[in-house]
Each structure stands twice: as structure tokens, then as C-alpha cells.
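Issue 218. Parser rejects a valid record. Input:
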Amino acid sequence: MTPPLTDEQRIDWLRLIRSDNVGPRTFRSLLRHTGSAGAALKALLELARRGGASAGGRICSREDAMREIDNAHRMGIRFVADGEDGYPPRLATIDDAPPLLAIRGDSHALMRPMIAIVGSRNASAAGMKFAQALTHELGQAGFMIISGLARGIDQAAHRASLASGTVAVLAGGHNEIYPPEHRDLLLSIVGGAGAAITEMPLDHAPRARDFPRRNRLISGAAVGVVIVEAAHRSGSLITARMAAEQGREVFAVPGSPLDPRSAGANDLIKQGATLVTSAADIITVVNPILSRPIETGLREPDVEGFRSAPDTSERTRIVALLGPTAVGIDDLIRMSGTSAAIVRVVLLELELAGRLERHGGGLVALKELPHPT
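Output the parser choked on:
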């Protein structure tokens, strides 16, 4: 376990991740280049200007950060940093792990091994009954159940694991529970042997694009993900895809080929997901994984200032290689003839200027600017 952040560091971390154009990957890049969140805050405007921004984006003020921290504390919510006690160890290993998690409930429960159970919102009675039975067996074996508080399979898994321990991952902030009818379920979770987590600000209302972001946390915190009923093009299949990309085990419960709610899960089995008919199928696969050490811990690196800054010709050459079609960072380094450090600084500048999109697999692309009217 790495040493906890100081109070001042925690404020700076919250300010940085709440500033415009700063996501988890950008946060890490900034810490690598500047040495601390405090130094990164001072460098944001200049970096954005070098990336082509006509005006700097909003930087979260100390007052706004303190207000969010104070309001959260009144609700019993803690902001826990990657590597601190209470931050799920496996979640800390994914590329885009949140620097800070807002945690309500028993944060020590988040240190236990987790299995994710997700599935159809419009679930069948048989699907929910099986999810509940599976959850009971996994809870008895010592696993926490993590899911997304959604209707259907998610809520069935949460309710069945209230006594043994369950984690709800929110798409919005702690003040914006979705769906609203699950507010009482959430109170039962955080008031018992479980917890609720989110990376979003306290009053953030979830939007459609926030649910895939939530799903990566569900899969990232778990050692494996179980799909119980999922139609084609369902959100549960997005969770399964993210789990595979994160190196997590993917499990699927088979269903009738006549029921479209099982089509996605059946396809996963055809593609190599482990077929599940009981908890033993899951436990057999994950027990050897649990014996392996987990490498975690993002902390402010021991560097002072930028190691190097690109000159105009280097920046021009790298930007010229970029376009709306995604390209690999390794390809940019090779084609530009510059160092990896220089390429990453230019990409950081472009991202802070709002001109860069990051895709999976280390791919990046320039955002298409709107045509003038």
C-alpha cells in the first residue's frame, strides 16, 4: 500500500481531474511530465496554448474543489486515490483508472476479490432467479458482487448479495442516482456490507455516454465478469468487451436460442467465454488468478519539470501526421523521427487544447473541427 495523499495533494488531484480536457489518461500524462498535480495545474494553460487552443479551458478552482469535498463528507463520501486503502486493487491496473474514486459505504469491502454480474434490464424471471442463485453461491465463497445498479439482472444481483457484500458502480454522481427507483436499494447497499463508487462529480446527472465509462469500472474492479442474459448490441456486451481488453475473465450463462435476451450471451460462449451453469465454473477459473500479485499504485513521480519540450518543427511534423483516422502512437514516434517523450508531450498539448481523441489500443486521432457557417 502506498502512502496516502496529503490533504493538499488530494485537493490538487480533485482540481486537476475536474478541469476541462483532463481525463484519467491525461491526468497520468500530466503527472509524468510535471511531477505533481500542483505543478500540472500551473502548466495547463501554457500546454493548451502550445496545442493550439485560442483560450485556455476551465481550471477547477480550489474553492470549487473544497466545496465538493465538504458536500461529499456531509454525505459520508470519501475521495480515495489510486493505491490508497479502499481503492479496488484491480481497478488501479487499467489504463484509464480514475485517479480519485468517490466512495460511500464500507471502503474496506472494496479490497476483497470481486465478481461482476451484469445482464439484461428487461430480464426474464428465470434469468433473475439464476443470477440470484449464482450470487448467493459466490458470496458464500467469499466474493463481493459488483454491478451497475441497473434494472433487471443488476438489481437482482445486488439484492441477493446485500448480506455478503455488493458494490454499486454509479454512472452519475452520488446525488444523481439512476434509475431513481433504486435509491432505496443503494441505501441498503451502503448501509450494510457494501459500497457505492463513482468517478463523477457529486451532482453529475448521467448521460448516455457515461454508461460505457461506468462499465469499464465494473469490469476493471473485478477478476471476472459474468453475463446473464444480453441481447445483441446491449450494454452488457460492452462490459464483456472491456473486460476482455482489460485482461479479465469473461463468463456467460447460456440461454434459449429462441429468446433474443440470450443471443448476446450465447454468442460470447461461441467466441470463447467460459460457459457458466454454477458458481463452481467461475471459482475454478479465478482461484489461480487470485494467488498472483497485483501491481498497483499511481503516485506523483519523482521528477521536476518537463524533461524535454518540443520545438516548432517537431510539433509541426507530428501534427501533420495526425488526422481524423486513428493512428498508433508507436507509428507516430517512428514516422516523425522524434523521441517518444516529444511525441507524448505534443499529444498532451493537443488533448488539453481539445483537439485530440484517444481510442482503444493506444490509437489517437485529431478531432474534426466544425466547419464555419
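Fixed in the parser; the record now loads. Residues 302-306 have pLDDT under 50 and may be disordered.
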